[in-house]
Amino acid sequence: MAVRRTATYMLATAIGVLEMFWSGTLLPDQPADLISQAEARIGRPLTPVSYAGVARRTTRRAVYAGAAASTYYAPQCVPVRDAYGKIVGYRCP
Questions:
Q1: Same domain, 26 and 65
Q2: Domain residues for 26?
Q3: In this structure, what DSSP letter does residue 26 have?
Q4: Which pairing describes strands 87-91 and 78-81: parallel, antiparallel, or unpaired?
Q5: pLDDT at 25 over 70
Q6: Which residues contact 53 (CB under 8 A, 6 or more apart)?
Q7: Looking at the structure, do residues 65 and 32 belong to the same domain, yes or no?
Q8: Any bridge partners for residue 89, and if so which?
Q9: How many angstroms separate the Cα of 18 from the Cα of each of 8, 11, 12, 37, 54?
């Protein structure tokens, strides 16, 4: 029973590895056709359709929103600690 289970796992792993490199054609014309080329050229990097532009704008918006929220919700009072790190009180400006 254990041998059959191990053989099943090995077969499934082999099929999974082969599927990662398969380009989708049943009979390749050339040996190099097993791996397809990735060609994702959609617009220039700063255009609204490009993936790089979308990622850049999303990151910029997240940074600006985080900076605005941190200044708005910044604590007014800060804890005062002694030499051992214990909070002994609060200091408010």
A1: no
A2: 1-39
A3: S
A4: antiparallel
A5: no
A6: 43, 44, 45, 46, 47
A7: no
A8: 80
A9: 15, 11, 10, 17, 33
Give the tokens for residue 88. 């002994």
What tens digit of pLDDT does each residue of 26-56 get?
A: 665 655 555 556 665 555 555 566 666 777 7
User: 3-state class of 71 per DSSP?
Assistant: helix
pTM of the model: 0.30
- Are 67 and 89 members of one domain? yes
Measure the CA–CA gap between 1 and 72, rounded to whole angstroms. Answer: 64
Nearest-angstrom CA–CA distance, 56 and 61:
9
Nearest to 79 by CA among 71, 93, 89, 69: 89
Q: Is the dihedral of CA 12, 15, 17, 23 positive or negative?
A: negative
